[in-house]
Design goal:
By secondary structure, the protein is an all-beta fold. Helices cover 0% and strands 56% of the residues. It has no helices and 14 strands. The strands form three sheets. Strands 1, 4, 5, 6, 7, 8 and 13 form a seven-stranded antiparallel sheet that branches. A five-stranded antiparallel sheet has the order 11-10-9-3-14, with no helix packed on it. Strand 5 and strand 6 form a beta hairpin. It starts with a strand and ends with a strand.
Length: 131
């Protein structure tokens, strides 16, 4: 079950979403931020994984995961606040992690706007800001 979910939102091309939170697990923890139509159709999945010190991004369509995009660097620390900014650009998402690390992933579902956000895993989300 998602820790936080927002339904019937509008996140469309040209907007940004800024997420602030604190990872609160142990060395083997992970969390995810997800934008899409439902838990089965996720246009963007951002998944910091502490056990492997990687950030994995992906898409899920009709319950099937696509090819992973793995970022370079791991700027997260347990119990230290983070900010992630997601820019929804024409044809892609640009994710800016702490330390200005950027990951680009195509908008594989080809939507122009998405109504659903949810987070999962071991992080406390303290704020969401849509612009």
């Amino acid at each position: 079950m998602p820790l936080l979910q927002i339904k019937n939102m509008v996140f469309k091309v040209g907007q940004t979403l800024t997420v602030t939170g604190i990872p609160n697990g142990g060395a083997a923890s992970r969390f995810s931020l997800n934008i899409g139509y439902s838990e089965q159709d996720i246009a963007l999945h951002v998944n910091p994984r502490f056990e492997s010190n990687t950030v994995v991004c992906n898409t899920r369509q009709k319950g099937v995961w696509g090819q992973e995009v793995i970022g370079c660097g791991f700027p997260f620390k347990q119990h230290v606040e983070f900010t992630i900014t997601i820019a929804f650009q024409c044809g892609e998402f640009v994710i800016t992690l702490p330390d200005d690390i950027k990951i680009r992933i195509p908008n594989r579902l080809n939507g122009k706007e998405y109504p659903y956000f949810f987070s999962d895993g071991e992080a406390q989300i303290s704020s969401l800001e849509f612009k």
